[in-house]
Every structure is written in structure tokens, then in C-alpha cells.
From TrEMBL:
SUPFAM superfamilies: ACT-like, HD-domain/PDEase-like, Nucleotidyltransferase, TGS-like. It comes from Candidatus Jorgensenbacteria bacterium GW2011_GWB1_50_10. InterPro entries: ACT-like_dom_sf, ACT_dom, AHAS_small-like_ACT, Beta-grasp_dom_sf, HD/PDEase_dom, HD_domain, NT_sf, RelA/Spo_fam. In eubacteria ppGpp (guanosine 3'-diphosphate 5'-diphosphate) is a mediator of the stringent response that coordinates a variety of cellular activities in response to changes in nutritional abundance. Belongs to the relA/spoT family. Keywords: Kinase, Transferase. Transmembrane segments: none annotated. Residues 489-564 form the ACT domain. Pathway: Purine metabolism. This is GTP diphosphokinase. Residues 384-445 form the TGS domain.
Length: 565
């Protein structure tokens, strides 16, 4: 391992001390690869250093497994390295404890949770560096753990990296996970693509000097021309859309050109098009309209040398860096800008960074029209949603301001109805307590207990509201309930996707429940956001059965129901 980056830090400074501490804490422990454990910590720290994060982050990376895996505690870290490092290590320790239920359809919730729960983006970024190293050493693990870690990586961490704009890391994580996920497909690709990749690489080598010469002739300063072979994981996804026909993939090897300015980018595009005729409809201006994760570049596909169809990507050095580092790059810039205020109170630093993050997500969102991506970016991580944990480590997402009663009804209507008290992080709290992200919530129940009308004053979710109203319906009768025919009314809040409505009706059909009334609500964009279904009265088991089925439909966010009399 090249440790020159590390040697540059001063003796007895934070980084060197953290290293010595971690080395001592993990001594005698080996990785599955047989290497001393500290090699992992050092590698994660190196990545964090290279991404340009601050010293506290590098120190936290060195110490990230100490609390979870050794006898040292957070108090020890706090005492030795101060609050900021301890805060980061604490976040990483908590993230490590969370178990992600495999095959959970709601992976998006998990991704948001990680970000919200981490409180500070540096925790997420260090976690990604940790995951990257673990993926590179995955081959040493037993097969069942390989599969699980590859699943988490592909479903949670790679998309998370992508959302943070760390496109290159995201792709690498996908590629590292791919062979564990799709072993046969991977072998197929190796068999069929390897030669083509080599062919295309040598072709790229022929083109590069021609491009360079023409750019220089037109006064465009070239910083770099690289050829970039398409990743196996993304190639596979694309092949599935193109009948597995490799001849239809034009960006098997793309040429990536880095120039100085945005003007040069457009000028370069002009030169390329003068040299080689472009394929119509394949010019993409991600500079004027960046991707939601911040990616910027110009793309074009042309009939290049020997009439071979080739993709070019043109960008500035800064765009290139953002592509590789994403939010970490912005973060590093921000660091440099504010280095004078380095001694600033820790708390101020935290909120400033959060603001930066939210602001950036907003900017990305503004420049975009892709509906699904906008939804998935969820600009309001910190504002409108909280993520709490059940004693079984399941993650539950609730609106901000939600209370233990909202939580209880989310678990089960009986838990809500019989709720008598709640514990948060082991301490008893009042039922109107405002839950915070990361809280571990436990509900105490009593079979004979009935919900109280008072709860309606503080609960935040419509699910809790409708169920409390149901349970005390003798006291509260809404006009709607009076006029509606007897039976059950379901309200399904959903994420729009094609076929959602059809899947809902199919589930009722399958359960042999007749639908008496069906309507849907649309949002401003015309996407279906909620579906209402009324049926005849149902037995309790039928009701439970259909609720489970609805919850399993992809896109279902929330199901409420009430009884009409
Ligand atoms: Mn680790």
C-alpha cells in the first residue's frame, strides 16, 4: 500500500494519533483476507483523504470500526480526539448496526434514511469509502455474506453514491457487486465482450492523436483525452434493452475529452462534428441541462474513423471532478473557501453543510424535468420526514413532528389502539413526544385500552387519524361516513408508475373482493398519487389479507382504511 499521503501529516497530529490508536485497538485482529485489520482502516482513510474531506473525516475513517469491533468506547474517542471526530465515529457505528431487510421493496426509504440518520454528509461519504474497500475485498468472505453485501451495495449504496453525484464510485460499486449478483451473465459478458473491448481500445488509440491535432488547430486546449470502456454492469442493463445485441451499443468504448472552459466544450463539439458526421438525435447537452445528480458533459455519437460509430463526451476539468467525486467535490471546494473560518464552532459547521446539501439538491431539482428522478431526490430529507427504528431494527419513515402514536399505528392498528405508553431510546416519553430521526421507539400496549380522542390533537399521520376515528366512531361521525354505503373504504397513497391501478384491482380480484367504487387522485403533474377503493363489509381476516397484498404492490406508500356504516 502506498502510504505517502499519510506520511505527509505531522507527527503527533490528529491523523497520526488516530492511526496509532486504531492500530493498537485492532491489533491481533485480521481481515478475512489475512491482512491486519488496520489495513482496512488505512485504506478507507486514504480514500477519504483523496476525496478532499477534512482532517476530522480522515481521523474518523481511521477510527470508524473501533467502537463497534473493539473494547474502546465512544467516550474514549471523545476524550482523545474531541467532539467532532466522536460525532462522526458515532454516526458510522450506528449505520453499521442497522440491518437492511433483504428484498424490501422500499429501498428508497433506506437510502433516505441513511442520509437523514447520518445527520452529517461526511458520515455518508466515509461510509461509502468503507463500502468501496469492503467490496474490493469481498472475494475473501463466505458466499452467503458476499451475496448479502453485494445486494446492499447494488440496491442501497451504489444508488446513494449516484444521488450524491459520485457517479464514478456508483459505477464501480455496481461493477464490483455485479459478478456476485449475476454470476452467469457476468461470464457471458466476459466471453462476448472482452475481445470487442480490446478492439475498441486500440481503435480509440488511433483516433486520439487526430482529435488532439484538430483541437489544437482550432485553438482548443486539451487537458486530457481518455477512452472509457463501458462498465459491465451498465452494459448488461443496456443490452437487456437492446435484445442483447452488442452491435447496437455505440458507447462500448467512449472517448472522454477534458478541456478548459465551457466555451471550449461547445467549440470542441463543433470540431468533432466537422470531422465526423453526427448520428441524428444523439447529441445530449448535459451542460445546459445537467442530470439530476449534477452530472455535466456534452455527449455526441458520430461516424468516426473508418465509419465506426463512436461516442464522445466533452467536459471541463471541474465537471470531470464533480463526476468523479460528486458532492464530495463541492464539499472540498467549500472547505477551501471557508478555510479561514476553520475554528468556527462545530455546530455552525454542521448546519452550514446541511444547508449546502439541501441547496444543492434544490438546484439539481430546478434544472430537471425527469419526474421519477425528481421524486427520488426528495429534497426535503431534513425538513419533512424523519426515520425512526423499531426495537427489531426496522426503519420506519414518518412525517416530521410525528409522535409515538403515529409510530404505533404504523406498526399495526392494534398496537395503535392498545397503546398506553412509549419508550424512546429506552426512556419513557409522553405520547405526544416529537420523535427525531434515529430514535429507537418502543410502544407499550394493554389489551383493554382504547384510543383517546385527545390523540387527534397531536398526531401527524392520516393513518393514525383514520384509525383513531374508526376506533372511537361512536363519538365522531363524519358526514361522509353517514352518507357512504356500508363497507370498507381503502385509501392507498402511492408513487405513480404505469400499471399501479391495474395491480390494485388485480389484488382485489385475486382475493375475491368486489370493488363497489374506485377513484384516483392526481397531483399537479397528472400523476396518480392516491387511489380510493370501496368494498362491501369484509371479515377481519379478509381485510388483513388484502391490506398485506396492497402493501406489497410496488409503489404503495401508505394504506389507510375505514369502515363505513
Ligand atoms: Mn469498515
Amino acid at each position: 500500500m502506498n502510504t505517502s499521503w499519510f506520511q505527509k501529516y505531522p507527527e503527533n497530529g490528529l491523523i497520526k494519533r488516530a492511526y496509532a490508536f486504531a492500530e493498537e485497538a485492532h491489533k491481533d485482529v485480521k481481515r478475512e483476507s489475512g491482512d491486519p485489520y488496520i489495513t482496512h482502516s488505512l485504506s478507507v482513510a486514504e480514500t477519504v483523504h483523496k476525496w478532499g474531506l477534512d482532517e476530522a473525516s480522515v481521523a474518523a475513517a481511521l477510527l470508524h470500526d473501533v467502537v463497534e469491533d473493539t473494547n474502546f468506547t465512544l467516550k474514549n474517542i471523545d476524550k482523545q480526539f474531541g467532539k467532532e471526530v466522536a460525532f462522526l465515529v458515532d454516526g458510522l457505528t450506528k449505520l453499521k448496526k442497522i440491518q437492511y431487510p433483504e428484498h424490501d421493496p422500499n429501498v428508497e426509504t433506506l437510502r433516505k434514511f441513511i442520509i437523514s440518520f447520518s445527520r452529517d454528509l461526511r458520515v455518508v461519504i466515509i461510509k461509502l469509502a468503507d463500502r468501496w474497500h469492503n467490496m474490493r475485498t469481498l472475494k475473501f468472505l463466505p458466499e452467503d455474506r458476499q451475496k448479502r453485501i453485494a445486494w446492499e451495495t447494488s440496491e442501497i449504496y451504489a444508488p446513494l453514491a449516484y444521488r450524491l453525484g459520485m457517479q464514478r464510485l456508483s459505477g464501480e460499486l455496481e461493477d464490483l457487486a455485479f459478478p456476485y449478483f449475476h454470476p452467469e451473465e457476468y461470464l457471458w459478458l466476459l466471453d462476448n465482450v472482452k475481445d470487442r473491448y480490446e478492439e475498441r481500445e486500440s481503435y480509440a488509440r488511433k483516433i486520439k492523436p487526430i482529435i488532439r491535432k484538430n483541437f489544437e488547430r482550432n485553438g482548443i486546449k486539451v487537458i486530457a483525452i481518455d477512452s472509457r470502456a463501458k462498465r459491465y454492469s451498465s452494459l448488461y442493463k443496456k443490452l437487456q434493452r437492446y435484445d442483447m445485441d452488442l452491435d447496437k451499443i455505440y458507447d462500448l468504448v467512449a472517448l472522454r475529452i477534458v478541456v478548459k472552459t465551457i466555451e471550449d466544450c461547445y467549440a470542441a463539439l463543433g470540431v468533432i462534428h466537422k470531422l465526423y458526421p453526427p448520428l441524428p438525435g444523439r447529441i445530449k447537452d448535459y451542460i445546459a441541462r445537467p442530470k439530476p445528480n449534477g452530472y455535466q458533459s456534452l455527449h455526441t455519437t458520430v461516424f468516426a474513423l473508418e465509419n465506426i460509430i463512436t461516442e464522445f463526451q466533452v467536459r471541463t476539468a471541474e465537471m470531470h471532478e464533480v463526476d468523479e467525486l460528486g458532492i464530495a467535490a463541492h464539499w472540498a471546494y467549500e472547505q477551501i473557501k471557508n478555510s479561514k473560518r476553520h475554528s468556527e464552532q462545530w455546530k455552525g459547521v454542521l448546519s452550514r453543510k446541511e444547508l449546502l446539501w439541501v441547496e444543492q439538491l434544490r438546484n439539481w431539482q430546478k434544472s430537471f424535468s425527469d419526474k421519477e428522478l425528481i421524486e427520488s431526490i426528495a429534497v426535503d430529507f431534513f425538513k419533512d420526514r424523519i426515520f425512526v427504528i423499531t426495537p427489531q431494527n426496522d426503519v420506519i419513515d414518518l412525517p416530521a413532528g410525528a409522535t409515538p402514536v403515529d409510530f404505533a399505528y404504523r406498526i399495526h392498528s392494534d398496537v395503535g389502539n392498545n397503546c398506553v405508553g412509549a419508550k424512546v431510546n429506552g426512556k419513557i416519553v409522553p405520547l405526544n413526544y416529537e420523535l427525531q430521526s434515529g430514535d429507537i421507539v418502543e410502544i407499550m400496549t394493554q389489551k383493554t385500552k382504547k384510543p383517546s380522542e385527545d390523540w387527534l390533537r397531536f398526531i401527524k399521520t392520516s393513518l393514525a387519524r383514520s384509525q383513531i376515528k374508526n376506533a372511537i366512531k361512536d363519538k365522531i361521525k363524519t358526514l361522509r361516513e353517514k352518507s357512504a354505503p356500508a363497507g370498507v373504504e381503502f385509501k392507498i397513497v402511492n408513487q405513480d408508475r404505469p400499471g399501479f391501478l391495474k395491480d390494485v384491482t388485480a389484488q382485489f380480484d385475486e382475493s375475491k373482493i368486489n370493488i363497489g367504487y374506485l377513484s384516483s387522485e392526481t397531483d399537479k403533474r397528472g400523476a396518480i398519487s392516491a387511489v380510493t377503493v370501496r368494498t362491501a363489509p369484509l371479515t377481519k381476516s379478509k381485510l388483513e389479507q388484502i391490506l398485506v397484498k396492497i402493501k406489497k404492490i410496488a409503489g404503495t406508500k401508505e394504506v389507510n382504511y375505514k369502515f363505513n356504516r
